[in-house]
C-alpha cells in the first residue's frame, strides 16, 4: 500500500476569528518575479499565508511563479496590467487595465481576482465606483515599510514591527531581494507580539 500523503501543516490563520485574535496581513506588490520563488519557502516554513497583488505583465512573464503562489494557498489580487495611476485614466482604460491583468492571473492560477490594489494607492470616488461596478474592492495598506525606497532589511523589519496594529495590512514588495530578506524577521517579530497572519480577505470577513 502506498504511504498516505503527509498532511499539509495548516496555515496559522486558518479559521481564525479576527474580531477576537490579533490579525495582521502581509501583502506583496508588483510580482511575480524570480525573488518571489525565494519568498515562498520562507512563508511555508512559518505557516503564513500572504496576499500577493500581481501585475499582469509580470504574471505573463512568469506564469509558473504565479501558479506556485496560488498552489501554496496565498491570496492573489490584481495590481493592474502596467502599473498606471488609475486616477489619470478614463473609466474604459481602468477597466482594460484590470481586465487584462485579471485574464493573465486567471490563466496562470485558474482564479479570477476580485481584490484590487491601485498602483501608488492612487484612487478617488470615480476609480472606486468603477471597481464597485465590477464587483471588485480596493485594498490599500496601514503599514508602509518603504522597503522599495531604503532597500534595507533591518529598516523594513523595524518599520513593520513599530506600526503594526490588529487588523493591519503591511505593504512590501517581493520584487526586491532585500524585502524578501526581511520577511523572516517581520514574521517572527510579529508572532512574538501575539499576531496571527491572515490574508486580506480574512481580515474583512
Ligand atoms: Ni506597485
Task: Provide structural commentary.
With 205 residues, the chain is an alpha/beta fold. It has a single domain (23-204), classed as Glycoside hydrolase/deacetylase (TIM Barrel, Alpha-Beta Barrel), CATH 3.20.20.370. It contains 9 helices and 8 strands. The chain has helices at residues 34-45, 56-61, 63-71, 91-109, 125-133, 147-150, 153-163, 177-192, 200-203; strands spanning 23-29, 51-54, 75-78, 115-116, 137-138, 143-144, 168-173, 196-198. β4, α5 and β5 (137-138) form a beta-alpha-beta unit. α1 (34-45) packs parallel to α8 (177-192), α3 (63-71) packs across α4 and α7 packs parallel to α8 (177-192). The N and C termini lie far apart (42 Å). The mean pLDDT is 94. Bound molecules: nickel (II) ion. Nickel (II) ion is lined by residues 29-30, 79, 83, 119.
Amino acid at each position: 500500500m502506498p504511504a498516505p500523503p503527509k498532511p499539509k501543516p495548516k496555515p496559522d490563520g486558518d479559521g481564525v476569528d479576527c474580531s477576537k485574535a490579533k490579525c495582521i496581513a502581509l501583502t506583496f506588490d508588483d510580482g511575480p518575479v524570480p525573488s518571489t520563488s525565494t519568498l515562498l519557502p520562507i512563508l511555508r516554513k512559518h505557516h503564513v499565508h500572504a496576499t500577493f497583488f500581481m501585475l499582469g505583465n509580470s504574471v505573463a512573464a512568469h506564469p509558473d511563479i504565479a501558479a506556485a503562489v496560488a498552489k501554496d494557498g496565498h491570496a492573489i489580487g490584481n495590481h493592474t496590467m502596467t502599473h498606471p495611476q488609475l486616477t489619470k485614466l478614463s473609466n474604459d482604460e481602468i477597466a482594460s487595465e484590470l481586465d487584462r491583468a485579471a485574464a493573465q492571473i486567471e490563466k496562470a492560477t485558474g482564479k479570477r481576482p476580485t481584490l484590487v490594489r491601485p498602483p501608488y494607492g492612487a484612487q478617488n470616488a470615480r476609480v472606486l465606483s468603477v471597481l464597485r461596478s465590477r464587483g471588485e474592492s480596493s485594498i490599500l495598506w496601514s503599514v508602509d515599510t518603504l522597503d522599495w525606497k531604503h532597500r534595507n532589511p533591518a529598516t523594513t523589519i523595524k518599520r513593520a514591527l513599530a506600526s503594526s496594529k490588529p487588523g493591519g495590512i503591511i505593504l512590501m514588495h517581493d520584487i526586491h531581494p532585500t524585502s524578501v530578506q526581511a520577511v523572516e524577521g517581520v514574521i517572527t517579530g510579529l508572532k512574538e507580539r501575539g499576531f496571527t497572519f491572515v490574508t486580506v480577505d480574512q481580515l474583512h470577513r
